[in-house]
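Reading group handout, session on sequence-to-structure problems. Before we discuss, look at one worked example. The prompt was deliberately terse, the way you'd type it at a terminal:

> structure Fe2OG dioxygenase domain-containing protein

The input record follows.
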Amino acid sequence: MNMALIYPMFQAAQTRQVLKKMDPNPPFMNTYKKLFNTQPSCSCDLVSEEECELPLIDLSLLHTENASRCKREIAAASLNWGFFQVVNHGISTELLDRARSEQVSLFRQPFENKCKDFSADAYRWGAPTATSLHQLSWSEAYHISLSQSHDHPFKHNTITRKTIEELAASLSSLAHLLARVLAEGLGGDAAYFEDNCNRETCYLRLNRYPPCPVPGGLFGLIPHTDSDFLTILCQDQVGGLQLMKDGRWITVKPNPSALVVNIGDLFQAWSNGVYKSVEHRVISNPNQERFSVAYFMCPSYDSIIQSQAETAIYRRFSFREFRQQVQEDVKLIGYKVGLSRFLV
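And the output record:
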């Protein structure tokens, strides 16, 4: 064969190998080839009927004569929506921007580096147990335990570690503030959250949703409810978050100045169903990547979740028992059942 033809072909092959090694995206198509071969499209209902702006609450009012009204708005949003947005929340734009910059740099590393440098507990992507495209999440994430007994996944990157820890501390303070307000709205014991939810039990998740080339799209994150008390979400301006409202999916319009808060399963049980843990999901984008950071307010595994209502909807259970039941359901039937397992 003519060497003048062979050399360009060799160069092209080398270039493809270099680009592959530099690619930040997980190998979704190769890893889940069997699913794509048997189900060429997800055929999921990915389109919502409308876009909405979540209830918007100005937390600076908590320090004014309008504090009572602000607290009522938080409780009403938790009851009627299970989701709301907060502004003037006390977390600086500078810190949020710095954290986003560090997050983007982390995720844009070559995929090979991300897999090599972090344990399976810290870096995750896709859905290893998926048996259909409906169970596949087109996303990757760093799960960061805030417990001092765990090795920090960024222990060798001082700037990133300090930024993440600063963000976690700020989100923790905000989560405790909101939990106190919600507990007081029920006439409950706000000290419960100080006693049971701390640095040792809560965690952060850094999310990236790569562009998805699959025709018709896929879930960036499959429909679910959160298995915690409450979640605080810092997201970018690439839309994709949807929630279930009045029996239909609606798209949440991103707000550049707000953080999103949602009620988790444990608060729904603790409030005897007053506050709602609402099903939500993320839809993949064919052209743009999406970033978000989620703070999960969780108790210790031995913490008891119990409503103080005279007639309780849910039986008394520990967080450990709840988590184990969720894991068993996912393993056996492919999805989380959640609170309905704990009805009286």
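Points for discussion. First: Residues 9-16 have pLDDT under 50 and may be disordered. Second: The longest helix spans residues 158-185.
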